[in-house]
Amino acid sequence: MHLNDIALRIENLSIQYAEVYGINRSADWALLKLTEEVGELAQAHLTATGQSRNRGLSTEEQQQLVANELGDVLGMCLVYAKQLGIDPEVAIAEKWFRHEKVPAASPE
């Protein structure tokens, strides 16, 4: 599955969420939600790494919480990109992959 396919599915879920809760989805809203989710990821990380109270969760539950919060962060990044009309695959390729070092051709 490609990132744009995932983005479309998440966008549809975000639209449904907004309809249920009467939310006006905008780039501002998406950025604030992304910020909220990053905070929740940080809290989950602190708990999972023993830098905060364990909240009564097992090690496995703490790791799952980190994974869930990371999923929220990634999802909201994609929603934010959609709000701004940014293709996430292009954005990543242009920002990250231009730094890749192409391996030297092997001598034959």
Overall pLDDT score: 94
Number of strands: 0
Following the backbone from N to C, one meets helices and strands in this order, namely: HHHH
Structural class: mainly alpha
Shape: flat
SS summary, helix count: 4
CA-based gyration radius: 18 Å
Domains (count): 1
What portion of residues belong to β-strands?
A: under 5%
InterPro entries: DCTPP
GO molecular function, one term: hydrolase activity
Protein name: Phosphoribosyl-ATP pyrophosphohydrolase
Keywords: Hydrolase
Report what the structure shows.
This is Phosphoribosyl-ATP pyrophosphohydrolase. Keywords: Hydrolase. GO terms for molecular function: hydrolase activity. With 108 residues, this protein is mainly α. It has one domain (3-90): Orthogonal Bundle (Helix Hairpins). Helices cover 69% and strands 0% of the residues. The protein has 4 helices and no strands. Helix 1 packs across helix 3 (59-84). The longest helix has 26 residues, at 59-84. The radius of gyration is 18 Å and the shape is flat.
In short:
It contains four helices and no strands. The chain is mainly alpha-helical and 108 residues long.
